[in-house]
Amino acid sequence: MALIVQKYGGSSVADAASIKRVAKRVAEAKRAGHDVVVVVSAMGDTTDELIDLANQVTPLPPQREMDILLTAGERISMSLLAMAIHNLGVDAKSFTGQQAGVITDESYGKARIIDVSPSRIKDTVARGEVAIVAGFQGVNPTTNDVTTLGRGGSDTTAVALAAALKADVCEIYTDVDGVFSADPRIVPTARKLDRISYDEMLEMAASGAKVLVLRCVEYARRYDVPVHVRSSFSTRTGTLVTNEALVTNEEGEQMEQPIIAGVAHDRSEAKITVVGVPDVPGKAARIFEVVAGAGVNIDMIVQNVSAASTGLTDISFTLPATDGAHATSALTEHQPDIGFTALQYDDTIGKLSLIGAGMRSHPGVSARLFSALSEANINIEMISTSEIRISVVTRADSLDDAVRAVHTAFELDSTEDQAVVYGGTGR
Amino acid sequence: MALIVQKYGGSSVADAASIKRVAKRVAEAKRAGHDVVVVVSAMGDTTDELIDLANQVTPLPPQREMDILLTAGERISMSLLAMAIHNLGVDAKSFTGQQAGVITDESYGKARIIDVSPSRIKDTVARGEVAIVAGFQGVNPTTNDVTTLGRGGSDTTAVALAAALKADVCEIYTDVDGVFSADPRIVPTARKLDRISYDEMLEMAASGAKVLVLRCVEYARRYDVPVHVRSSFSTRTGTLVTNEALVTNEEGEQMEQPIIAGVAHDRSEAKITVVGVPDVPGKAARIFEVVAGAGVNIDMIVQNVSAASTGLTDISFTLPATDGAHATSALTEHQPDIGFTALQYDDTIGKLSLIGAGMRSHPGVSARLFSALSEANINIEMISTSEIRISVVTRADSLDDAVRAVHTAFELDSTEDQAVVYGGTGR
């Protein structure tokens, strides 16, 4: 008998029929003898609909009120799910983030969890009942007001609760079969990964893989919570995100790390080039101070070699395209004191990232990457690396070709019949 | 400067445009120098839609979960209203029933308020902000779970909050201009009442007038909260529900009580006749024990004179038609021990009630009532009275005629141009 935290996203509870399907799944886990705690997101598009209502009322909703509004979404889904489970003869009770003891700071709209004290959840489980917990929300103890955790917040709620309850596993149910070696919409031969380490998953999430948000993986790594990413539409095993040392085979022996876990891609970034910057100490620092001061996070940076004749250089960096207007206006405002000639803005870039813990011990990965891209006639505009990741910026319209070329070059293509992987039938 | 509690019902906040209209009204009261606390219901049909969702999931939703579900409705309307007020440059914060200190018992679905400790509301008002409070909901302090107050619960929240805050007035905004001498849909010449006493309003509410629910008026009477029932679609004065001794004219002199306040009607009752009951002591008591044991409240009772030849009598009583099936099956089950011959069920009855505090000191009211009905050829089937009310049961299809005849006989018809009363223009 295990203690399992299950998390179901909005698409898994989009309507009454879906809620009943999830209820059946929860009841089966309970009847199999497990203790079950369920974290649930708002139904389908509820959150977007509530945001739309707020925008109809005011262009600038106060964030405290926005959080109160949005938390209504999980209140609806959690109580309906508790009812549906109860209807199957299994006792279930629902709890808000506050009732479940999810304590956050006071950053409305993007609050961080600072503590989880799930005494009511423990009591509920101890009584043999299923506890349903609203994802995405917590309480700011200073004012006793509700907060929301921002995008992907329900995953974070699930992992934080699993850590606090010392759960055996945190199952994240989604609409795909797990974590793939690349996005299957771009690479039809992408393989579902059976296991991936926290570090690799972190790099994947930071590089554009959508299946789990970064902070959820960070939380799982910090508290060593095994996360099982799987489909709510099938019963097959998904991907286990776990400690690297625990990547073992079915006989429990530690397996050799595969060199490469996967290829991630990201189309959400843009590139700003600051043209004609005087090549004197402190100018680059000044540029990034201005950008940081505007609250914009930058990703990759390239400084060109300066032309000896002019003493001027160009500095390029990437940033979320949604921050583009913000960053360019901040830089333009400081053009006099920075002293650059012009700004170029380019949102037609793509980023490819190759991720694998095995890179640490296997030289030659970057050479193989660059040669694969070169053979596919794809130009590399920027490069950045971490210990277990290499990222390159390409033209946006070459990105899909680049991902496919790299996926093949590193022998990641599946040899299995993909119809089985995507057909929704068990195996 | 006064402290005003304003309550807006679901039809007043049915969509974003309505919410903005209410926000304007609240902001005007605030700018006029008043302290304002607003109680708000769920938007339009939200509550019905949530109930419908629950019924899609299970035929028997656990009441605790139902209450959690339904309270999402006011969470949405209250935060949107706070945003809309904020957008007009007036600071506003929204609070759940729990945050507003509305403490109830644990009767989920029909909880009773046992205490109101609105410290957060007082602080908010003291800071010069408008406090928006979710109607219809509270918290059961034993378990820290939310509860709902049942039908008309938001009115009760408003009056309870006004009592706890010692507000100068509790304004109940609705879609009619106030309390009328009869339902204007039946009696086009019905007059809007400027004032009515708590006792009369209680009898009106208990006799089928829909404008305020019974428990709200009971609460107002107990704590002596002046209630101003008025339209959210106009600025004209509505009806002040207040202590009888305070019914004064515009110069502040106590006015002579009008004999009759109004005529109420009720189509929601049914009549059960228990035929052939042995006319021996204890049989009537046994019948009403059985009915009460089934959780059914009865209203009027008539026992016929027994026929000397048989020693049998008939007992008729009225009850809410929604409890009809329940009561008849309970009685049928006990037919052997009660020993009656048959049950007759009749849901084609109507009840007319004439209400007026002046009845106490004016004899002849019932004679005038019966003669008016007789002249209109309307048969009276049952009669009951209180100190300030006379009710009669008629055929359902004579009820409208009966209401009109009585309204005219007691000279309640308005002589004003009704277009002014209903036209939506100020006066």
From TrEMBL, chains A, B:
Pfam family membership, one = AA_kinase
A GO molecular function held by the record: aspartate kinase activity
What protein am I looking at?
A: Aspartokinase
Describe the location of the ACT domain by residue ranges: 272-350, 354-427
Is the Kinase keyword given for this protein?
yes
> Which pathway is this protein engaged in?
Amino-acid biosynthesis; L-threonine biosynthesis; L-threonine from L-aspartate: step 1/5; Amino-acid biosynthesis; L-methionine biosynthesis via de novo pathway; L-homoserine from L-aspartate: step 1/3; Amino-acid biosynthesis; L-lysine biosynthesis via DAP pathway; (S)-tetrahydrodipicolinate from L-aspartate: step 1/4
Which source organism does the UniProt entry give?
A: Cellulomonas edaphi
Q: Which reaction does this chain catalyze? A: L-aspartate + ATP = 4-phospho-L-aspartate + ADP
- Gene3D superfamilies, per the entry: Acetylglutamate kinase-like, VC0802-like
EC code(s) of this entry = 2.7.2.4
Q: What does this protein do?
A: Catalyzes the phosphorylation of the beta-carboxyl group of aspartic acid with ATP to yield 4-phospho-L-aspartate, which is involved in the branched biosynthetic pathway leading to the biosynthesis of amino acids lysine, threonine, isoleucine and methionine.
Which keywords accompany this UniProt record? Answer: Amino-acid biosynthesis, ATP-binding, Diaminopimelate biosynthesis, Kinase, Lysine biosynthesis, Nucleotide-binding, Transferase
By sequence similarity, the record places it as follows: Belongs to the aspartokinase family.
